[in-house]
Q: What sequence folds into this?
């Protein structure tokens, strides 16, 4: 029961302070579950992130599920999902009544303009922070560079690039 409460509190805390959607939550989640709570190590976190990116749906809910399961089985999945979703669901229900009143407010649009670069910085920091664990040799660097080039210069859907990365990993192991 203590583990379930800790999972709920950790994920609710992350869900309460992470703005900008799932990807912006990744560095906050890493700080909570890898650095603070030490429930998983960085390699397991990177695996959950990779698998989460390979599956459809919001990344943060898939990561919450994986970490919750790892810590406390199926009950851990349930409380982690409730914890990560509940803050934004409650805020959304409350704020929907005010959306029409503030959507054209210059202060609100300015605030959002200021938040967007912060989200980009958080994503860049997450990449920078996790790169040493993901880019361990020339092969992984090559996969990274080819993937980035494909995303920048071709219309290939990112899901196909993820599948290709997984296939490259399998082929390299063989």
A:
């Amino acid at each position: 029961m203590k583990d379930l409460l800790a999972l709920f509190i950790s994920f609710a805390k992350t869900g309460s302070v992470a703005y900008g959607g799932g990807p912006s939550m990744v560095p906050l989640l890493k700080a909570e579950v890898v650095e603070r709570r030490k429930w998983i190590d960085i390699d397991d976190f990177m695996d959950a992130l990779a698998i989460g990116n390979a599956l459809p749906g919001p990344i943060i809910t898939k990561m919450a599920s994986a970490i919750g399961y790892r810590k406390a089985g199926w009950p851990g999945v349930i409380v982690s999902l409730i914890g990560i979703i509940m803050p934004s669901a409650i805020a959304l229900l409350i704020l929907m009544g005010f959306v029409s009143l503030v959507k054209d407010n210059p202060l609100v649009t300015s605030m959002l303009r200021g938040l967007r670069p912060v989200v980009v910085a958080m994503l860049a920091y997450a990449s920078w922070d996790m790169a040493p664990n993901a880019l361990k040799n020339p092969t992984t660097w090559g996969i990274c560079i080819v993937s980035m080039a494909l995303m920048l210069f071709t219309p290939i859907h990112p899901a196909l690039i993820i599948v290709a990365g997984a296939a490259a990993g399998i082929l390299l192991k063989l």
